[in-house]
Amino acid sequence: MTAHRKNVLLVLAFCVVLPPLTAHAMPRLLPGSTALTLSQGVSLGIAALSLNLLLGYAGQLSLGHAALLGAGAFGASVVVDRWSAPMFLGWIAAAVVGGAVALIIGVPALRLRGIYLALVTMVFGLTMQASVLRWQVFTRGSAGAALPRRLIGDHILTNTSVYLAMTLVVLVLVWLVDRNVLRTKIGRAFRMIREDETVAQAFAIDVTRYKLLAFVLAGAIAGLAGALYGHSIGLVNSDVFSLQVSLRIVLFVMIGGIGTRWGAVAAAILLSLNTKLPESLRGYDLIIAALIVLYNVVRFPGGLAGLVAHWRGAATTATVADDDEEVAIPHFVVDHDETTIATDEPLLVVEEVTVQFGGLRAVDSVSLSVRAGTIVGIIGPNGAGKSTFFNAISGFAPTSSGRVFIDGRAVHELPPHARAAAGLARTFQNVGLAKDLSVRDNILLAQHRAATYNGGAALLYTRAANEIEQRLGDAADAIVGGLGFAARAATPVRELSGGQQRLVELGAVLATGPRLLMLDEPTAGLSPGAAENLADRLRELRDDHGQTILLIEHNVPLVLDLCDYVYVLNAGALLAEGPPRQLARKPEVLSAYLGEVVL
Amino acid sequence: MTRSRGWVWLVAAGLIAGVVLVSFIARVVIQLLPADTRDNVRKAVRANAWPLGGGVGVLIATIVFALCSTGLPVISRPAASSAQSVAAADTTDTGDLPVDTTLAGAAGGPASATPAGAVSAKRAAAAAGGARLASLYSGAADLQGITDDSITVCGHAPLSLGALLNTKAEDILVYWRYINDKGGINGRKINVSLEDDQYSASGGVPAAQRCAERNPFFIFGSVGSDVVPPVREWAEQNRQLYFYSFSPRAGTEKLKYSYTATISLEDLSTVIGRLATTKFGAKKSKVGVLWRNSSNVQPGRDAFKAEVARNGGKLVADLPVTQSQGNYSQEIIELQNRGAEVVVILDDALAQINIMKQGKSQNYNPQWLVFAFNVQTQTLGEDSLHPPLAGTNLAPAYQCHTFDGPYASYAADIREFEAAYAKFSPDTDLCGLGGDIAWDTWVGFKAAGAIIEACGRDCSRNKFAGLLDNGYNAKIGAACPVDFRGDPHHGGLYADYFEAYRLPNGKPGWRNPERCLRAKP
Amino acid sequence: MGQALVVGVIAGGIYGLYALGLVLVFKGSGVLNFAHAEVGMLALLVAQNVIVGHGQPYLVGAGAALLTAVVVGVAFERAAVWPLRAAPRMSVVVATIALLSLLIAMELRIFGGLPRLLDPPIHGNGITVFDVIVSPTQIVSLIVVAVVGLALAAFLRFTDFGLSVLAAAQDQEALRFLGIRLARVSIFTWGVAAALSALAALLIQPTIGAIAPNAFGVLFIKALGAALIGGLFSMPGAFVGGLVVGIAEAEIRHATVSSSLTGLPELCIFGVVVLVLTLRPQGLLGRTR
User: Is the peptide bond before A346 cis (omega within 30 degrees of 0)?
Assistant: First the structure.
């Protein structure tokens, strides 16, 4: 049974079975007002799911979520109360309004990190409560906006148990959408962005677009939650969506464990029942919740990521695997759609690139070209500007002048993720992977470019999306197996040794099916034997698969042995270039560089 | 719950028509698209046929299910006025202020053992006695909350605000304990409970919902221009008899389940407008108004404005304020700049006190015209006499243990009130902030009790509503007359005029220079 | 016009006092304390309880308020800030958010959600200065703000301990070498910031009317706006920022008093906050770092 079919069956099962079951069982179990309270709890649970998406996946902390709920509720009110449309249309309107408002916050949020984003969202929430949500034109002042549970015309749903059933159905649907986010490229992109935006860009993820998408998705769900909440009471005014509500939602998410859905929802529903507590106990629930969160933050100071790792029950007995002295680097499994034939046409052309930081010229008018199907090396003493040059080519360092062409196409105006999408893959000195994700997830993440279904298909987890995901999953399994990590496919990368991480990174960049593979010091941290091994594999890639490789290296003998062409950089400028044999004899290279090398 | 067959067919037809319409529109839109987009759309739809179909099916199933299982309101037939036969005259109209009239023929039939039998017996007796019934309920619902020896009522009240004024729930409910101690009404004890509505628009409905679970005879609501209107709507949808207090009249045109014996916000604002322009000398006709920014309070502001204009006054400042705004310094500056000499405040007691205190600290002492509560004279102290505060309220002035002077005309009621509190709630400080609150609710409850008594031994919900529909009017206790003849759902027409003055003991208090003012003189 | 200005200046001074506390903590610990205003609210509720509930004189209540605030501030510093001194700053911020929730929950539990009234200690008519009326409470406010601000500035600049507080923001390692106990500096920072919050709350209470939990959310925005104008790094800047916010708020309110669009000053502050954070994070008055 494919995941897709399971999905559909789940939806049908919940939506068809749940309403009658709930509606008939509820009145016998609970009085009407309890059903009302529970439906409010469910609404807040949906809001918690929305914040969880933003915080747990995308790493953005919003303290003004109540404003999004309020926007949704008031949007629904306009549709249901002023235009007398059925309640369901109001829900759709609420989601639209919520998403739109979130987009408005999302745009400045692109520039803000962590604490400042939390600040802006909190101020946003408070401001909305104090101003816009009180204007008569929207909410009739303190009279509030009416949200009748209009079914059609004048017929209002008065049975609170039925309404509870409806909210549960919506909860399930939102849950499923959330699950679809998690297991498709959207969720992986979010988590990569949260970990390291630079590396995300290197995997062809358009960070800006995905950040905005995170906000819009979260906003739409929050708006929907606000409408559900408002409909349960029947009326909302600005005091309903206050800072306290925002904080409660944050508490739910943090107690439930960032990244776990059911914990947040359970917290929301349970804590909503606090009005049923006897007077003497009321109010302690929130105190305890806040204390738990405080305790967690202090105990696990790895920041929010630390909280995630802990709650996921990740094996904290992180036995870092022994270094892979003896492990032979396996053959890479490469799945190339395009076969590259070594031609005389240069794959990569770099013309007169200059990178300037203030008065310092880190890279001074360097030109370079790489023919398809060859391995080109860049060497030079420390501080020569090699990594900066790499960054300039891949788009991570701004160039003050110069041009870059891939396959004849000008890419020097493109952002890094677009250059990655054009076939440029690179590694990083500090290992460009999502360290909290598992090995397999990282390989899947790397295949972002190959996940050709669009956002909508991802959210609905259509059959097409399912097929592509299956294919990518199989490919990932093959790669992971090929690397020798089959037993550790689910291990977070963070728990591997340095050498193992580099291996995984190599496997990941190859999984992107790149036109040009840029390796930044690939043998750093490897034993000489392992380094030789790696060189053999790279040679294999070039000879058997026609892979074009550009690499930076300190291991000069290896470079001289492996590369077809070598460039020497010194103090930002191109010192010399040529085939390795020739270069080794050039006096300026020898004098500038060879003194450092231990042969 | 009944529903007509025709309605079901109508809805089904509507659904089908809707589906047809939507698919037609979709088809047209698809035609308009460029060819490649159209292919993409078709491919996408075909690829996702299962989920799309499933989703649509679920949506329809849920709608159908919800419609079928909801308690749809009975399409109520027109109210009693045209339905039943006119029998004997139901009130003895002895001039302007009839005293404690009851429904003639209310001596119902023999109390029957079984409820079903009781219903028919009571109905028969009532009809025989000439009472006209409303047709809001049928069957057992007509007798919800009423048995042979008890009536259950429940109310929503701003217990939070009350606590601010040192008033607890027990303090307010003394009237009913007093009545029950004397044997109840028509041989029935009255069980009363309260739910906190937090004096907020969103708190009323949940409180009313909790009340509804006790299956009350009727639900009553206390003050709150923002609290009451949503509860009125809820009562209409849930078919609960709702007896509310001070509120705007706007929005009540079609409501059949809600009644009030209190003057409406619009009418009271008209009275205030007249007072503001005529009471304080022809020179002082520059008026300012501070009103809570809410579409429930705006009708009051509009009525006030109209009356001021009609009386030749000048409205120099029209300032909306936010609920619980707290800081009114800018508004006071504006009032000062405009030279407003009489200032009306249409907001809750807390806001009024804040405004007046902040005005005082900014050396602004106009003639304030507010809702009169003892908390104001007690909190403002000497400042409330320079110039003496003026105001209106729905029950006459009260000063603890004072029965003479301005209070003499209803001294008997005050004595009854204080004796009851001494017996049943001696801890309530009638001389403190909550004393007149207790008095106001006593007066209000007494009116409600009188109507319940008028309903008689064979009372039912239809009969109770019918009583009001057919023009119940009476003068009950110290209150101004209640008169449902003009509008069957609004029986309150009067308010009392208040003025702060110095009590014999030197402290400031309130008295009524005039009583029972009407909007239309 | 003049009257509105006076109101604005008095309020602005109090906002400046709030902002001082915010900036002090930001400089000392690198953390923006989201619970800053709420500590003051808790203190205010305690004061109200002592003065009105137990019939004590005003100064006793004020003292209780300051004591409560300091206790909360120091307790939080010991429990959360000090253990997290090496952790990313975001963790401490999350801790302050948890503290904010905790404070609100405690206030609701202990004092209930009802609004409460508190009389200012000084009654009497205002005096008229240049056609503008200043009430005694406002005068006291002004004096207290000025005295406290100057005293704090003097302490920080002219005493050894004060200098170490200022320096702690710059370089903690160097301080350790100099043998200065960082723990003491940290306790001082958070304790004083909490006390400032309580003081500001007491001063602003007469203009707010009733006291209720979470009524101080809006106040936090204003304190934040004030601090941001100064760039979060400059204490005099925060003070000036407070005055700017106060005066701007008063003028905007004055101009729109008849309009039914509420909350316009808050909207403006929001706009300023967003603009400052995205375009000029060093604040309008700060230097580029």
Answer: no
Distance CA C130, CA A119 (A): 41
Whole-model pTM: value is 0.81
Residue B82 dihedral angles phi and psi, to the nearest 5°? -100, -10
pLDDT digits (tens, 9 = 90+) for B226-268: 899 999 999 998 899 999 988 999 989 889 999 999 999 999 9
B408-449 pLDDT, tens digit each: 999 999 999 999 999 998 888 888 888 888 899 899 999 999
Mean residue pLDDT of chain A comes to 81
Distance CA A391, CA A428 (A): 10
Q: How confident is the model at residue B388 (pLDDT cuts 50, 70, 90)?
A: very high
The answer to whether domain B266-393+499-518 has CATH 3.30.428.70 is no
Q: Which of A254-268, B89-103, B312-326, B403-417 has the lowest mean pLDDT?
A: B89-103
First to last CA, chain A: 59
Is A259 within the bounds of a domain?
A: no
Domain boundary among A242, A273, A298: A242
- What does the block give as tokens for A320? 């870092």
- Asked if A369 and A350 touch (Cβ cutoff 8 Å), the reply is yes
Select the more confidently predicted residue: B81 or B440: B440
Residue C41 near chain B (CB below 8 Å): no
* CATH, domain range C2-279: 1.10.3470
Range of the domain at A568: 326-423+514-599
Would you kindly state where each structural domain of chain B is located, as residue ranges?
89-263+450-480, 266-393+499-518
CA-based nearest distance C264→chain B, Å: 12
Residue A409 has φ and ψ, to the nearest 5°, of -95, 130
**Which ranges in A184-260 belong to alpha helices (H)?**
185-195, 197-202, 207-233, 243-256
Name every chain C residue with its beta carbon within 8 A of the beta carbon of B333.
3-4, 7, 254, 257
Chain C's closest residue to A141, CA to CA, is C260
Q: Is C95 on the interface with A (CB under 8 A)?
A: yes
Structural contact between residues B196 and B159, judged by C-beta atoms closer than 8 angstroms: yes
Residues of chain A with Cβ-Cβ distance to B55 below 8 Å are 11
Superfamily of domain B89-263+450-480: Response regulator (3.40.50.2300)
Q: How many residues does chain C have?
A: 289
> A167 and A30 in one domain?
yes
Tens digits of residue pLDDT in A521-565:
888 877 787 788 788 888 888 888 888 899 998 888 888 888 889
Residue C32 is nearest to which of A115, A126, A250, comparing CB atoms? A115
Residues A146 and A16 both lie in one domain: yes
Cα A571 to chain center, whole Å? 37
**According to the model, what pLDDT value does residue A318 have?**
40
Which residue has tokens 């949808």? B237
- The answer to whether A160 touches A36, Cβ cutoff 8 Å, is yes
B319 in contact with chain C, both atoms CB, cutoff 8 A: yes
Q: Cβ separation of C133 and B324 shorter than 8 Å?
A: no
Domains of chain C, residue spans: 2-279
Interface test with B, best of A43, A155, A274 (most B CBs within 10 A): A155
The separation between the first and the last C-alpha atoms of chain C, rounded to the nearest angstrom, is 38
Q: Identify whether A357 is part of a domain.
A: yes
Give the residue from B378, B367, B494, B358 showing the smallest Cα distance to B430. B378
Nearest to C207 among B319, B327, B336 (CB): B327
Asked if the structure places residue A9 within a domain, the reply is yes
* Token pair listed for A389: 């040059």
Inform me whether the C-beta atom of residue B55 falls under 8 Å from chain A C-beta atoms: yes
The single-letter code of the amino acid at C59 is L
Nearest chain B Cα distance for residue A156, angstroms: 7
CB contact under 8 A, C135 and B317: no
> What is the rounded distance in angstroms from the CA atom of residue A242 to the CA atom of residue A232?
17
Triad A44, A47, A53: Cα angle to 5°: 145
